[in-house]
Amino acid sequence: MTPLAELLAERIRRYGPLTFADYMRECLYHPVHGYYSKREHTRFADYYTSADVHPIFGRLLARQFAEMWESLGRPEEFTVVEAGAGVGRLATHVLDFCATKLPAFYNSLRYVAVERSAPRREQAIANLKRHATAGHSAGSSEIPARIAAGGLFSNELIDALPVHRVVLESGALKEIFVDFRGGQFLSATAPLSTCAIAEYFATQGVILQERQYAEAGLEACDWITEVGRRLERGYVLTIDYGHHAAELFDDHHMRGTLLAYQNHRVSEDVYVSPGEQDLTTHVNFTALEMWGKRSGLETAGFTSQTAFLRRANGGGAGSGTPPAQDANPPGRHGRALPSARPAKGLRWIKTDGPGSPFAARLRKTTRNCPLPKFGVPSGRLGTNQTRHRRKQTSSYC
Ligand SMILES: C[S@@+](CC[C@H](N)C(=O)[O-])C[C@H]1O[C@@H](n2cnc3c(N)ncnc32)[C@H](O)[C@@H]1O
């Protein structure tokens, strides 16, 4: 048993079964034994994200942030907040490119690399030292309380947020708890631990089928709502694998979407080696849109990562980027995916009070602020592609 498994087993013996959200939170973020709470020693150990593959991803994002800055009227200070920045690899690519190729934007740029894991945050701060010394970057454990003008984005963060698990049994929604019996962790169904789970599904009009398993991403809903509160004027972009609710809960997903990754191997056994394997679920973009709206975020668009990167690369000159057909790095599970992969989405929400994830314009702003590099000035793109292994981008306005 891993050290974390010992601790969790003891906790269950004393206090009873854990919700799956509590189990997943401990597995990924336990302060000592959590998967993400350790320093990154080996690059590409269990997965890699687009940021790991080539600096092109960061360079194209840099161009997108500069476009946001332009669309907001070139504010003197423009804050880019990267939520879940890891060791700061993507941040380094963005900032290095801005410093050399986009000097006017760089002058206004303050980049905050937000990372929950203290060891990884320290690595990020060390990697960004040059830009911090120049007053253009900072590390933080939390999203700033107020972002006056800026863009908040995340790459493969939301699929790593804890979820509750449910199953529909005899017409009733039951929650899946984690029990420990006979020396092993196992699933046990019981009544819902919180009515927020029933509300989660009801709000989206989701009705599960008998024996259908599903996840309720309550933490993602809280996260997007909080982002919306903190962003006063600007954009939100989320990049992740996921679906809208109509697909996420359809009959192709009767077992839910929870998966474990270790050494680039995918497995449904989420109880093996707690703290030593990555756990993820597909992102529910409908929930993000609905909960983001509660704090002023409006959807600006939704498209595939491929389409987004091609458009972002369209300007070309001076980008230092390879041809567009090469501009589609895989996600962190891009080479270990089962056949029914979710799409990876880039979503933008733009708000004027608080903001959220995805791209768009400020809600209190009356003028339209399209983002040409984003490629979706308004409306929605590519939702018919989500069942394929394409990565997607969305925007909201
Ligand atoms: C899958 S990794 C992705 C890292 C990076 N964005 C990349 O593309 O390589 C998810 C990261 O998000 C961090 N994280 C999870 N929840 C967070 C939160 N609420 N606030 C800040 N960081 C968080 C984790 O510690 C982890 O470093």
Shape: globular
Strand percentage, roughly?
15-25%
Using the coordinates above, name the CATH class: Alpha Beta
The largest sheet, given as strand count, sense and whether it forms a barrel, is: 10 strands, mixed
Average pLDDT, rounded to a whole number, is 82
Radius of gyration equals 20 Å
Write up what this structure looks like.
With 397 residues, the protein is α/β, with parallel strands linked by helices. It has one domain (3-396): Rossmann fold. 30% of the residues lie in helices and 24% in strands. The protein contains 13 helices and 18 strands. It starts with a helix and ends with a strand. S-adenosylmethionine (SAM) is lined by residues 36, 49, 51, 83-86, 90, 114-117, 120, 155-157, 160, 332.
State the main characteristics:
10-stranded mixed beta sheet, disordered C terminus, 13 helices, Rossmann fold, 397 residues, globular, 5-stranded antiparallel beta sheet, alpha/beta, binds S-adenosylmethionine
